[in-house]
TrEMBL record, chain A:
This is 4Fe-4S dicluster domain-containing protein. GO terms for molecular function: iron-sulfur cluster binding; metal ion binding. InterPro entries: 4Fe4S_Fe-S-bd, 4Fe4S_Fe_S_CS, Helical_ferredxn. The keyword Transferase does not apply. Keywords: Iron, Iron-sulfur, Metal-binding. It comes from Devosia nanyangense.
Automatic annotation (TrEMBL), chain B:
CDD domains: CAP_ED (cd00038). Coiled coil: none annotated. PROSITE patterns: CNMP_BINDING_3. This is Cyclic nucleotide-binding domain-containing protein. InterPro entries: cNMP-bd_dom (IPR000595), cNMP-bd_dom_sf (IPR018490), RmlC-like_jellyroll (IPR014710). Residues 13-82 form the Cyclic nucleotide-binding domain. Signal peptide: none annotated. SMART domains: cNMP (SM00100). It comes from the Bacteria.
TrEMBL record, chain C:
Residues 17-114 form the FAD-binding FR-type domain. This is FAD/NAD(P)-binding protein. The lineage of its organism: Bacteria, Pseudomonadati, Pseudomonadota, Alphaproteobacteria, Hyphomicrobiales. Transmembrane segments: none annotated. GO terms for biological process: pyrimidine nucleotide biosynthetic process. InterPro entries: Cyt_c3_hydrogenase_gsu (IPR012165), Dihydroorotate_DH_Fe-S-bd (IPR019480), FAD-bd_FR_type (IPR017927), FNR_nucleotide-bd (IPR039261), OxRdtase_FAD/NAD-bd (IPR001433), PyrK_electron_transfer (IPR050353), Riboflavin_synthase-like_b-brl (IPR017938). Keywords: 2Fe-2S, Iron, Iron-sulfur, Metal-binding. One of its GO terms (molecular function) is metal ion binding. It comes from Devosia nanyangense. It comes from the Bacteria. It holds the Pfam family NAD_binding_1.
Amino acid sequence: MDDRQAPPHRAVITVEGVGQLLAELATRGHRVLGPTARDGAIVYDDIGAVSDMPQGWTDRQDAGRYKLERRDDDALFGYAVGPQSWKKFLHPPMETIWRSRRTESGLAIDAPIAVSEKFAFIGVRACELHAIAIQDRVFLEGPYVDKAYGVRRQDAFIVATNCAVAGGTCFCVSMGTGPKAQSGFDLALTEIIEDDRHVFLVEVGSDAGADVLAHIEHQPAARMDVIAADTIIAHTAANMGREMETTGLKELLQGNLTHEQWEKVADRCLSCGNCTMVCPTCFCTTVEDHSDLAGLNAERVKEWDSCFTQDFSYIHGGSVRKSTSSRYRQWMTHKLASWIDQFGTSGCVGCGRCVTWCPVGIDITAEAAAIRAAPQKSSVVADARA
Amino acid sequence: MHGLDVTLEEHPFFAGFSPDQNRIVSGCARNHKFDAGHYLFREGDPANEFFLIRHGRVALEIVSPGQAPVVIATLGKGEIVGASWLVPPYRWMFDARAVELTRAIGIDAACLRGKCDADAQLGYEMMKRFLPVLVKRLNATRLQLLDVYGKR
Amino acid sequence: MAPPDARLEEPHTTDAFVPDLYRVEAVRRELSDTVTLELAPISGTRPAYAPGQFNMLYAFGVGEIAISISGNHESGNRFIHTVRDVGAVSGAICRSAPGDVLGLRGPFGVGWPVAAAEGSDVMFVAGGLGLAPLRPAILEVLENRARYDRVAILFGTRNPADMLFRHQLESWRQRLDIEVEVTVDHADPDWHGHVGVVPGLIPHVMFDPAETVAFVCGPEVMMRFTATALTAAGVASERIHLSMERNMKCAIGICGHCQFGPDFVCKDGPVMRYDRIAEILALREI
């Protein structure tokens, strides 16, 4: 008979407990990454202690707007998502995929061995858990696997955070991706700040999570703690900054590929690609080949790419998507429609980053609504049905 | 003339013509045989006859001074040669050369124009047959213009 | 927390991205800007492939491009590729000499449904260099000639001088059990063949449209016109197969470049059924 106690499904820890959690994960060989305030934004970076975290900060977000502001409390997670996502660690912006060198017999290629840094992510939002799950489908569940991604992914320890505030551009409720973390985490925290206490309700999502929790100070969760957390999450859900109607959205967009709205949005769109860089699911990459001046060594580097560049669709003779309208259409229809054909899920998690970080404030929810308000049906589809 | 009736009916261009209409058109028709290298017509000549190829191959050519003739299109069995007879001033714009032994039905243009003017139904049937051929050729020429196999 | 169902049992390398090394065994100049290379693996045997699939060829330090396989199994332990010099990478590959080493990943993609066409009439419609990706399918059909009904090869090219695989076309034409028609866009009077575009040949050789399967490869505009002409001749759009081209980087469906509507040309194509892509094919800048 196993006399060890079953791990508690829920527990309560303090701010000091969060510090212990960071230390425990570091002790276990993880590279502990979490939110920190830097350059006027919340960014994910190495953190060693609670003092590295953006305690007492919040953000104000709107289309094309982002600003950090002080809170009147000491909340650790009192803001929504910043410009970066965990994508930059799991699917790095640049990665050397192999090196080659000239040899006497011609050519040799050396593939680097994928080394895991054993990431621990602190403060992963529900939308971001979904984004990670979506990238898992892209990189791990197709006929070919990106093994370097898989290695990094497999070893990652994930501490989720249920959002206590909704950002001005958030619409996870519309996308069914938040604000509560449902799965895909080792531990999930809900920050509870009341008059006389500042604690975190901890939910255990895995055996690894239970084991880590066992090594930090915690109390059993009381019913009132669970109710307090649920109330916070419900409040967040009720205060989304944006919403997007998703019913029939795939068919709507795929049936309106020649809608005049694509030209209208192109009048504003700068083709800068910011939306693709900040999007936690955008996965496109290109490759660059470099060689030394002597022509003896070369390497191939995989880099994030954006469907907003001319080069992205280049075939011999020129770019397939020369106009901005065609590139915006590619991005948005891929994200909200053809992604479903390809991966069985929408590519949008409602995090709002593309809205916030668009320099001209283009809002994907408004673009979708504009087409829904006046569907035109692409002439091709209409012809086919005639 | 009975023999030509049959030949007309067999040509896809006249598929669906009534026996009466066939008889009317036959009255303007005669058989031709062009040996390889012989011309059906030349640029600038009056377009007083057009041709339905029964078999063989005809090249439409255009010539620039000092250069070899350029073949614009070839036409074969079942196709028609010549549209200039339909529009004033009724003069050929190209040379039409038999690439190989070619047998064709020639239709007298003035004769057919007269019969079409007199019988609007016949004229309409002719137009319904001619126009798709012309549009198809125009489309093909547009594709040819793109030079799709060249380096872009 | 680990991803569900992670398939990491194999060694931890990004091996789908890593080329194997192949030696250039022979180079044959086809046209002024086009060569055919025979590539043999430096070690081991080349993987099996299906007609219509492609490999990613890497020129040292310059880059990698997708090139269809243009030979058949008679090439033994070699891959045959016909490459046109249209850019930095294709130029470097075209300039390679016997003994040089290239990187090669593949084969990738969905090829021609050669076996599924058994019992049918088969019409191959090629434009320009589009004959190269069709060649393995043509060779396979001819090798199993008895399994097919009537077979025709329609080939359109720019002019008689720029005719790819001219000798092969001539030898195919000698056979009594296939029909071969060649047309050129431009010719001088010495050319005794067809002048005009390749869709124009379709009515000349159309068999029973209900029994015809068409394999089409060439520039996209040529394929659009050809598919329209085939449909007009009565061939059902699900019996028409086109080989599509889009920018390719990874060839394994994870870099996003070759998207064509909902499909990735690298893994859902390059050979695609016309009825599945007709709507998208008609759109600009898709």
